[in-house]
Amino acid sequence: MNRRNLLKGIGLGALGAMSLPTGAQEASDKRYTDATKGLRPLKITKVRAITTSPMGARLVIIKVETDEPGLYGLGCGTYNQRPLTVVTAVNEYLDGFARGRSVDDIEDMWQNAYTSSYWRNGPVLNNALSGLDMALWDIKGKRANMPVYQLLGGRSRFAADCYSHAGGRDFKELEDSVRSKMEQGFRHVRIQLGSYGSSHLSQKPHFREAGFGVPSDGHMDSLPYLKATPKMFEHIRNTCGEDVELLHDVHERIQPIEAINLLKELEQYRPFFIEDPLAPEQNGYFPQLRNQTSVPIAMGELFNNPHEWVDLITNRLIDFIRVHITQAGGFTPSRKLATLGEWFGVRTAWHGPGDLSPVGHAANAHLDMNIHNFGIQESVYFNDAMREVFPGAPTMDNGYMHLNDRPGWGIDINEKAAAKHPFPEDPGTWLPIRRRDGTAVRP
Ligand code: MG
Question: What angle do CA 343, 339, 332 make, to 5 degrees?
Answer without folding.
Answer: 165
